[in-house]
Amino acid sequence: MLQMLMNPNKKFNKPGKPAPKPTPKPKAEPVKFKIDAEPNAAFNWFPGHMLKAMREIKAKINAVDLVIEIRDARVPIVSGNPTLWESIGSKARLILLNKTNLADPAAVAKWDAWFKEKGEPYLFVNCLDKNSLKQVLSYARKIIEDKRRACNNEVEQKSKYGFMIIGLPNTGKSTFINSVANRNATKKADKPGQTRHQLWVDVDEHLQLLDTPGVMPPELAVEEHRFWLSAINAIPDEIIGEEDPACYLVRFLLKNKSEAFKERYKLESFDMSLDETLTKIATVRGCLKQKGLPDLDRVFKLILLDFRAGELGKVCFSLPPKN
User: Fold this and answer.
1) How far apart are CA 265 and CA 267, in angstroms?
2) What are the domain boundaries of the chain?
3) Average pLDDT value for the chain
4) For the chain, which terminal residue's Cβ has fewer other Cβ atoms within 10 angstroms, N or C?
5) Pair 44, 218: CB distance under 8 Å
6) How far is CA 62 from each of CA 32, 88, 142, 162, 281, rounded to the nearest angstrom?
């Protein structure tokens, strides 16, 4: 009776009847993440300002001597815009494959041989490197002069040049122009799509550059390509989200046995599953919620930021076609 008064909510079993056994708690299941990273549909992204930019580029094409298309060396073909390239017609052109400092040197060597075989004027460069820029300007002037001589061998060579700079968002157009002009002549930002209008930049009395907004192809028919372009930040994260591109990167880096990736996140091996890897990254980098659960949104952001900063190793997403 005293015990009942002290704790009236406690239940007592009748004499002679054994106390019921507590129901065992079910074992906690390992955390599973459902990631949709398989090709399933064509991807379209062509905002209205890009259509306008495309028309303006065509309208100004005759005002320049050379068109320079800046691509990303990690994605040599997919970071180009064939629709825009075709609209240039017979205008002298030069492809700059930028960010070689972030690209796998062995793959770059193979791409270099491939472009050389195609016969299209090109250079692999790092637009932050002054020596690369000198090489670009020298080669660009040679292309223009050779074409002028081919059209009219007796024409007097001009001393003034105009270059139009085109390319996908965030491939390095503004970096190239600012480095050549040696000043912040254009708006430069980590977020793609910041340049919305054409802008003439006077480098010196001999050279003018025309900056143009980044223009995506009207359609990306291969699902994997959108992951590539999202990873290099050509497509803004808010367009397709961060989950699929981040998970694609994890799978890609595990498959290609990236030592930098393994070391960055202190992974035990390359044989880890996607779930195990995401959980490990969350633990190592402190991306945890209550009760120690991984904060996947933070993990996805972290992976993309680290990759774009070059912390996960030098990468090329594909090798040249064999045909």
Assistant:
1) 6
2) 48-211, 241-308
3) 82
4) C
5) yes
6) 57, 10, 19, 10, 52
CA end-to-end span of the chain? 92
CB count within 10 Å of CB 108 equals 18
Annotated binding site for GTP: 170-175, 214
- The CA distance from 205 to 157, in Å, is 15
Q: What is the pLDDT of residues 87-134, one digit of tens each?
A: 788 889 999 999 999 999 999 999 999 999 999 899 999 999 989 999
Distance CA 238, CA 236 (A): 5
CB 301 within 8 A of CB 59: no
CATH topology of domain 241-308: Conserved Hypothetical Protein Ylqf; Chain: A; domain 2 (1.10.1580)
Phi/psi at 58 (nearest 5 deg)?
-60, -35
What letter would DSSP give residue 262? H
Under CATH, to which class is 48-211 assigned?
Answer: alpha beta
User: CA–CA separation, 259 vs 309, rounded Å?
Assistant: 16
Closest CA to 244 of 265, 221, 227: 227
Binding site: residue ranges?
170-175, 214
Give one DSSP letter per residue of 71-103, joined into a string: EETTSTTTTS-HHHHHHTTTS-EEEEEE-GGGS
Distance CA 223, CA 38 (A): 8
Question: Under DSSP, is residue 181 helix (H, G, I), strand (E, B) or coil?
Answer: helix
Q: How far apart are CA 192 and CA 170, in angstroms?
A: 5
